[in-house]
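Q: Please design a sequence for this.
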């Protein structure tokens, strides 16, 4: 089949969900997103990966393979667990574990705390088994040796001052160590009236600028992910569930990327995908959180799903659109513009999640 015919066929397949052809269409006229009905029937998206797509994904690092087996191929639990166990001894997981210093950090000089947080978050995302010997040794170093000296030597896993950081510390602590109830309660107390969180809601952010009363997409997604990990480790909590629901609605009411007041796209960078995300928000990260949290998709995510589909290439793969400036001591996918297994895995599983609600 010629490239032109392939392109036409794909366009026809996605004609009911394709993005508008011009960028101004994304900047649609202002509208009241509060009044838009979202309990409407939704059309399925033809997402199913071909065998060649799955083969390409499986021909990868154990961290990718076990998640493909779990999320896309419905492999047997024993097979998934066996593949996941390799994260600690092979590939990216083993490399990042080996990069940890005996003192518990991953280097970084004055930014050691952020590099440590990024590394711990990545190890969690890779699926390192928290009960494994390698994970226990790693988190034991963190737990016993890392402290925030300016905060009277507060232990690292007890958190610091900003909710965007504390959300992820809560998550990695719950995943690798034990749930920190005090940190969770503190985060709940910082939830803003509109349902989200913002690191700039604190007076200390700038003595010349009043604290923000509006939530930040970046901070909100970091806190939501942490609360989800905490809830899973601690079992169900009515207060946590209520807070997560409010935070999720903050994102959904804005269609994951639009201003509630004007209806315009808040930041076009959120419509391009990369991994790791570090503290940065984007549409694919939000969708993957909603999928992971078991939120039932409704029409409020439909436009975001269109963006995911539009970002895919004709070959059924999603590219690495760019790289964030932050880093960890590990090289994974670095060729901007080339096919990304991380983006492809995440895109395909959110498409599967979206369609499963329509079955």
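A: Design:
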């Amino acid at each position: 089949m010629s490239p032109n015919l392939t392109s036409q066929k794909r366009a026809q397949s996605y004609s009911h969900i394709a993005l508008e052809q011009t960028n101004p269409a994304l900047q649609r006229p202002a509208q009241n997103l509060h009044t838009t009905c979202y309990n409407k029937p939704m059309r399925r998206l033809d997402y199913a990966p071909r065998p060649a797509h799955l083969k390409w994904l499986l021909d990868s690092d154990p961290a990718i393979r076990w998640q493909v087996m779990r999320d896309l191929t419905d492999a047997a639990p024993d097979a998934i667990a066996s593949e996941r166990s390799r994260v600690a001894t092979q590939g990216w997981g083993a490399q990042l574990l080996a990069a940890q210093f005996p003192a518990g950090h991953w280097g970084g000089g004055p930014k050691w705390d952020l590099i440590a947080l990024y590394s711990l978050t990545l190890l969690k995302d890779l699926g390192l088994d928290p009960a494994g010997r390698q994970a226990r040794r790693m988190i034991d170093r963190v737990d016993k040796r890392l402290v925030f000296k300016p905060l009277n030597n507060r232990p690292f896993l007890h958190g610091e001052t900003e909710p965007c950081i504390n959300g992820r510390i809560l998550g990695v602590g719950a995943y690798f160590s034990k749930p920190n109830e005090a940190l969770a309660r503190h985060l709940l107390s910082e939830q803003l009236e509109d349902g989200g969180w913002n690191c700039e809601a604190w007076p200390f952010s700038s003595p010349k600028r009043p604290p923000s009363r509006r939530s930040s997409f970046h901070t909100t997604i970091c806190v939501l992910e942490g609360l989800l990990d905490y809830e899973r480790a601690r079992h169900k909590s009515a207060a946590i569930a209520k807070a997560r629901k409010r935070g999720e609605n903050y994102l959904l009411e804005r269609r994951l990327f639009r201003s509630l007041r004007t209806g315009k796209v808040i930041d076009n960078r959120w419509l391009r995908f990369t991994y790791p995300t570090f503290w940065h928000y984007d549409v694919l990260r939000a969708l993957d959180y909603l999928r992971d949290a078991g939120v039932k998709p409704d029409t409020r995510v439909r436009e975001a799903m269109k963006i995911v589909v539009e970002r895919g290439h004709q070959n059924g793969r999603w590219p690495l659109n760019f790289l964030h400036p932050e880093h960890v001591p590990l090289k994974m996918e670095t060729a901007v513009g080339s096919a990304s297994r991380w983006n492809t895995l995440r895109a395909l599983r959110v498409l599967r999640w979206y369609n499963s609600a329509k079955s």
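Q: Thanks. Anything notable?
A: The longest strand covers residues 147-148. The two ends are 31 Å apart (CA to CA).
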